[in-house]
Design a protein that fits this description.
Blueprint (H helix, E strand, L loop, with lengths): L1 E7 L3 H13 L6 E4 L4 H7 L5 H9 L2 E6 L15 H11 L3 E7 L12 H4 L3 E7 L11 E4 L9 E4 L6 H16 L4 E6 L5 H14 L6 E6 H10 L6 E4 L1 H14 L7 E5 L5 E5 L16 H13 L4 H16 L2 E2 L9 E2 L2 H11 L1
Parallel strand pairs: 1-2, 1-3, 3-12, 5-10, 8-9, 8-10, 13-14
Antiparallel strand pairs: 4-5, 4-11, 6-7, 11-12
Helix pairs in contact: 1-10, 1-12, 6-7, 8-9, 10-11, 11-12
The protein binds 3-isopropylmalic acid (IPM) and magnesium ion (MG).
3-isopropylmalic acid binds next to helix 4.
């Protein structure tokens, strides 16, 4: 089984190094090959997603990804910015199904900004469509307005769109995931205003008829944003488009108090996947050895489960992570009084030891 290891920028290299140590400690035959991506690839090759990196990613069974981005690239033209690497990988590999679990670990209940009783036991799965919507819709750009409130003025525009097959396949992913959980799906839309999301709602409803055992409800995105902080435990599987999913998954992550703990998986139709922590490159703390590697380590567990068919190894990693939390080990982002503060590398070592 071949894994493309793409650490990227900022804390990406530090956290991925720990996940690689954990993978090597398993008795699973894995071939790992590392390549540059994001700002690091731009510096070395003049492009955030060089041909060689894309080729490696396409050939691999799975990709272990760190994070990309740094403020110093904000002035570059869009096509050369680090973020284009992750968007390019999603597009070129057809990684349309993004799984973002938001789980509140018992040991970390106090780390959330919400009251403990609201989030204790929280276990939500956000399924975000990842290759369509306003992120990829054409045309987009800048031009001179011919109509609107200010004809003749400079304007910018993007295109929000979804085709029926795009909605159908992500809906199937959500219903099937729900069957393995509590059999409830909430589809989030903005059907009261947007044509694209009235269509989304109609198609999800149609697909839902094939899953009579799964309960489907619909929620407008503004209400969903509110309900997520009011009564988050009412949700189970949430399925939504690319843009709303981007926003709601960050909100859901913060409910758990620890974005540093949350893994994610992005899959295509042949179960090839990209696995990355839900957090970003955090250039402000890069190089200090204080980043939390657990989201990346848990992403490696998701990789073993979804793309490599190694459920036992996945569970071993998850149990090891529980164990280090139980031991009271904490990186700065999840630290609370009475615990032991550890570095990125010490956390990695503790997980390896727990394995
Ligand atoms: C995410 C990120 C990306 C996105 C950025 C880095 C392009 O915010 O994975 O949620 O908007 O999808
Ligand atoms: Mg995001």
């Amino acid at each position: 089984m071949k894994i493309a290891v793409l650490p990227g920028d900022g804390i990406g290299t530090e956290i991925v190094a720990q996940a690689v140590r954990v993978l090597k400690a398993l008795e699973v035959p894995l071939e790992m090959e590392t390549a540059l991506v994001g700002g690091a690839a731009y510096e070395a090759h003049g492009h955030p997603l060089p041909e060689s990196t894309l080729k490696l990613a396409k050939e691999a069974d799975a990709i272990l990804f760190g994070a990309v981005g740094d403020w110093k690239y904000d002035k570059l033209e869009r096509a050369l910015r680090p973020e284009q690497a992750i968007l390019g990988l999603r597009k070129h590999l057809g990684l349309f199904a993004n799984f973002r679990p938001a789980i509140c670990y018992e040991q970390l209940v106090g780390a959330s900004s919400l009251k403990p009783e609201l989030i204790a036991g929280l276990d939500i799965l956000i399924i975000r469509e990842l290759t369509g919507d306003i992120y990829f819709g054409q045309p987009r750009g800048r031009r001179t307005a011919v109509d609107g409130h200010f004809p003749g003025a400079e304007e910018a525009f993007d295109t929000m769109r979804y085709s029926r097959p795009e909605i159908e396949r992500i809906a199937h992913v959500a219903f099937q995931a729900a069957r393995k959980r509590s059999k409830r799906v909430t589809s989030v839309d903005k059907a009261n205003v947007l044509e694209t999301f009235q269509f989304w709602k109609d198609v999800v409803t149609e697909v839902g008829q094939q899953y009579p055992d799964v309960e489907l409800d619909h929620m407008y995105v503004d209400n969903a944003a509110m309900q997520l902080v009011r009564a988050p435990k009412k949700f189970d599987v949430v399925v939504t488009g690319n843009m709303f999913g981007d926003i709601l998954s960050d909100e859901a992550a913060m409910l758990t108090g620890s974005i540093g703990m949350l893994p994610s998986a992005s899959l295509n139709s042949s179960n090839q996947g990209l696995y990355e922590p839900s957090h970003g490159s955090a250039p402000d703390i890069a190089g200090k050895g204080i980043a939390n590697p657990l989201a990346t380590i848990l992403s490696a567990a998701m990789m073993l489960r979804f793309s490599l068919n190694q459920e036992v190894a996945a569970q071993r990693i998850e149990a090891a992570v529980q164990k280090v939390l139980q031991q009271g080990l904490r990186t700065g982002d999840i630290y609370s009084e009475g615990c032991t503060r550890v570095s990125t590398e010490e956390m990695g070592s503790a997980v390896v030891k727990a394995l």
